[in-house]
Each structure stands twice: as structure tokens, then as C-alpha cells.
Amino acid sequence: MTPRTALGALHIGALMFGLTGVFGKLAAASPAVIVFGRAVFAVLALAVFARFASSARWHKLHAQDVRRLLLGGLLLAGHWVSFFIAVKVAGVAIATLGFTSFPAFTVLLEGVIFRERIRVNEILLVVLVSIGLVLVTPHFDLASGATTGLLWAVLSGLLFSLLSLVNRAGSTRVPPVQAALCQNLVVGFCLLPMAAPQLIDVRPVDWLWIALLGVFCTGLAHSLFVASLAVIKARTAAVVFAMEPVYGITMAWLLFDENPTLRMLLGGALIIVAIVVSSQLSGGTKKPGVGAQATSH
Question: Can you give the residue ranges of the EamA domain (predicted)?
Fold first, then answer.
């Protein structure tokens, strides 16, 4: 893969991740069913990629690896369920922007868990993201769908941040595709008891949206991201994936007539700029697990 094709693959992956909320809203099913189906189709897609396209050898799992993958799967399940609840309650735009707060959580949690010094640009990231989230919500009222949805989306971002740190801790032992496949298996088993009674009522067209979520927005997008990281710097990838909410909000505007207010656009722009600037100021250093950090949404 050349740098040019890798950059193209990154943009395609970012677009697919941006469509996550769109397909979740199109599917007239509960978040539990959506997440269960997404995990099943993702496992199939990742298995195909691992068999025919991935050159990484699979790692023999030890007890420590199994515990970490189980924890990661539980966090991934919680992240997806809370995100799709946010989509159903508040719409794609607010859910996507609320989730985008996860880099700020990652900065704070890394300082606590890994005892890493928080740099000035990372403090700036946290401040700007916080201001952006305030702007995204027109008014704070727990009876309001917008506020409730944003809180679910922020919870989704927090769980995704914890997931990224779990993946970072085990990234030197388990290849990213293997880790993603195992964690999606855990998600499927976790959601099966809640989803099983509802599966018979899922319409065929909803299975189509769920399949697209699992195959394209999870399996293929993850595979493109992992493959491109072999050529593209991590900070370049971070900048490209900052476009994810732009793609998602644009598609929601076109498909669902979700017209973002000027205040929401300013808040979203502030969050995206904060992520881009922070990734550029941090230099080209790639922390372990960066591939896994951005490939589970």
C-alpha cells in the first residue's frame, strides 16, 4: 500500500465510521438488537479479512490476554449500546459530537492510569472539547431529548476511551484484528440474551442496515485503518478521523433533515479543531494501541 492509497483508505474508513449513527437510526430496532447484529456481522467480516488479507500471525492467548479481551468486549458493548441510545433519543448529530469527546477522557485517564504527564496541548484539548460540548447542547434540561442524548453520547465516549486504554495495554501482545474479532465475539454473547426475544420481529430492511453496520462500519473500516497505519503516521490518521463527525452530520442533514443550529456547528467545529491541533502538536509519536483506539466506533 502506497502513502496515497493509504490516505484514501483512511478517508473511506472515516466515512464508514461517520455513517455508524446513520445506519443505527435507519434500523428500526432496539439498541440491543442493533449492537448484537453489528457484532455478528463484524466477526464475519473480520474473519474474512484475517483469512485472506491480513499478514499478521495470530497470537496464542494466555489468561491475561483473555481477561483483557473480555473486559474490552464489555466496554465495547457498553460503548455501542449507549451510542445508539443517544442516536435514538437525540439524533445522529448530537450523538456523534458527544462521542467525539473521547480524546479528552483519554488524556485525563492516561494521566491517572499510566501516570503520564499531561502536556499543555492536551490540557487545551480538554478545555476546548468541554466548551464545544456546552455549545452543542442548546439548553441543559434532563427532560429534553437533546440533553439526555448528549449525556448518553458522552458516556459512550468515556467507555470508548476506557476501551482504548485497555487495548493500548495489550497491543504489544495481540494483533489489532485478532483483538477486534475477539471483542466483537464478547459483544455478541453479552447482547444475545437481551436481543434474542426481539430478533423475530426485526424487518428484513433493518437487517440490511445492521449488516452494513457490521460489515462496512466495523469490519471493513477497521481493516482499512489497520492496513493504512503501516504506511501513514498516527497523527495523520488522527486528523483524517477528525472528519468522522463531519461525514456523519452531513449525511444526517441530507437523509433525516437534522438541521444543526449555528451554536451546534460552532461547538462541533471547536471539538474537531481541538482534536486536529492536539494531534499535530503531539508530533509523530505513536503510542501503543493507537490503531485500536480509533477503530471500534
Answer: 10-136, 148-279
